[in-house]
Write a structure and sequence with these properties.
Chain B: It is a multi-pass membrane protein. The complex is a heterodimer of chains A (347) and B (204). Chain A is mainly alpha-helical and 347 residues long. Helix content of chain A is 68%, strand content 0%. The chains are: A mainly alpha (347), B mainly alpha (204).
Chain lengths: 347, 204
């Protein structure tokens, strides 16, 4: 009994506790990211944004949560009921499951697995299922068109995301996300004889890939200007048309969790994860998690600004950008990176 | 080992049950969704055996790409369910035959390793200890050294298949407007706008 407790029960309790803690923090963070998104959008358009619930509208997301939960879920008569209700669950579960391998600080990770980056890539490529299933099960033309668009879009941009990941892998030599962050403590800056600083992070040597990843991330998460699956001016709300109350909230939650995930992935791959920007005692004293959150927030600010002032792409332009611009560019960058690493012997 | 065994039976049971549902579900879309569940559990089984790279590749390639296309084809087709079900028994002998062949092969492989356990030690490229060499690196060691030509040939075959599919389906329609971005960018006010002085009361 004692060995059972020490080998199975206690690790299970620890793991469940960690996961719950991460989930709660993540959900609160998503609530405020949502608010920030609306506030930034409003500020660009010289509006005030949500400002009624709580001071500066700080409790707006929680009020929205209550509203969604207490509304009546409506299932269309022609819908395929099982798949219709399964789709939001799939989307939110997959979006949250990926966070298990994201390192927030030294050893602050639930599952420190060797193939962490591949896991993130795999699970985020599965997020298309939530959209396809909801689009098909709604039995509505708008929803189905949205699902068709999103599947083509997500599959196209995954290709360039894959190549971007390959370039980072070539520089690091490991699929472990923590190793990728550690690898960025030395780099260009230390080669020039400086102490480790933000000059070592991957975004300087791999700058084109950083941009490609940022834009592909927008497309992968269906953010504006690539929000064709839910283009409200053409498709009402795309694959979410028929959803209401709690299922709608889950689709929304899954979407924002995926956005936040892409932001953290950008931080880990290109901005040095939790590493401080300069080697200075006051800055080193700030915990890594703060740096991580600040960097994620910075990337998300970019996402929110893009949403506020870039007009939506037309569908053929989206496909052109993905297949004719990003794919050749990232492919060439993979070859160049490999050659440079091999010839200079940095790898 | 207890926990691993529990997970093995969980994954195996769900995989077999959903494989059964793939062929017995009435709606073809449900069949594909069950097929995805089978892939998922197969990835879980790979993870249990320590083949983490294969598990993730199974997720990326089969669920993330192949099954999406499957799902699309099935969703877009206008299928008469009743007609589809009518010929099921006709194909049953073929299915049974394939099942028997696969079962026989599995029995040969497993039986061989049970009868002569030393055979697995004599393989030319033994699997390195996972603690020292990660799965991904170990696969790369073999794939890009001893089997690099086969790897390249496989890539060429896929490339030819891809080009073939594009050639077969490409139709260049003449009378549709295409966007030529370099032409749009090259336009200047001088070439695009024609300023005309119009006398009042006369028009053009």
């Amino acid at each position: 009994m004692d060995t059972f407790f020490s080998t199975y029960a206690w690790p299970a309790i620890v793991m469940i506790g960690q996961s719950l803690l991460l989930l709660v923090c993540l959900l609160v963070f998503i609530a405020y990211i949502l608010l920030a998104d609306r506030k930034i959008w409003a500020a660009v358009q010289l509006r005030r944004g949500p400002n009624v619930v709580g001071p500066f509208g700080l409790f707006q997301s929680f009020a929205d949560l209550l509203k969604f939960v207490f509304k009546e879920p409506i299932i269309p008569a022609g819908a395929n009921k099982g798949v219709f209700l399964l789709a939001p669950l799939v989307s939110v579960t997959l979006a949250l499951a990926t966070w298990a391998v994201i390192p927030f600080n030294t050893n602050w990770v639930i599952a420190n697995i060797n193939v962490g980056l591949l896991y993130v890539f795999a699970i985020s490529s599965l997020e298309v299922y939530g959209i396809i299933m909801s689009g098909w099960a709604s039995n509505s033309k708008y929803a189905f068109l949205g699902a068709l668009r999103s599947a083509a879009q997500m599959v196209s941009y995954e290709v360039s995301i894959g190549f971007v990941i390959v370039t980072v892998l070539l520089c690091v030599g490991s699929l472990n996300l923590s190793d990728i962050v550690y690898a960025q403590s030395t780099g260009l800056g230390t080669m020039l004889g400086m102490p480790s600083s933000f000059l070592d992070w991957h975004f300087i040597p791999l700058f084109p890939m950083f941009i490609v990843f940022f834009i592909s991330g927008l497309a992968e998460t269906n953010r504006p200007p690539f929000d064709l699956p839910e283009a409200e001016s053409e498709l009402v709300a795309g694959y979410m048309v028929e959803y209401s109350s709690a299922p709608y909230m889950m689709l929304m939650l899954g979407e924002y969790a995926a956005i936040l995930l892409i932001c953290s992935l950008t931080t880990i791959l290109f901005l040095g994860g939790w590493l401080p920007p300069v080697d200075f005692w006051l800055i080193n004293w700030v915990p890594g998690i703060i740096w991580f959150i600040l960097k994620v927030g910075l990337i998300f600010f970019g996402y929110a600004m893009v949403k506020a002032f870039v007009p939506r792409y037309r569908y053929d332009q989206l496909m052109r950008l993905g297949w004719k611009v990003f794919l050749p560019l990232s492919l060439v960058m993979v070859i160049i990176t490999a050659f440079v690493l091999k010839l200079t012997g940095w790898a | 080992m207890g926990l691993q065994a529990i997970f093995f039976y969980l994954f195996a049971f769900v995989a077999v049950a959903s494989a059964f549902m793939v062929i017995s579900a009435k709606n073809p879309v449900h069949s594909v969704l069950f097929l995805i569940l089978v892939f998922f559990n197969a990835a879980g089984l790979f993870l249990l055996t320590g083949a983490e790279f294969l598990a993730m590749i199974l997720l990326v390639v089969y669920i993330g790409a192949v099954a999406v296309l499957f799902l699309f084809v099935v969703m877009m087709l206008d299928i008469d369910f009743a007609e589809l079900r009518s010929g099921v028994l006709q194909y049953a002998p073929v299915g049974v035959l394939i099942g028997l062949i696969v079962a026989a092969e599995l029995i040969v492989v497993i039986g061989g390793s049970v009868l002569t356990p030393q055979a697995s030690q004599a393989i030319t490229m033994p699997i390195p200890n996972p603690a020292q060499r990660t799965n991904t690196a170990a696969l790369g060691d073999v794939l890009y050294t001893n089997y690099v030509y086969f790897f390249q040939i496989a890539g060429m075959v896929l490339l030819v298949a891809m080009i073939g599919a594009i050639v077969l389906t490409l139709r260049h329609r003449q009378h549709i407007k295409r966007q030529d971005i370099s032409r749009q960018v090259a336009r200047t006010p001088a070439t695009a706008v024609d300023v005309v002085k119009v006398k009042s009361g006369q028009g053009l």
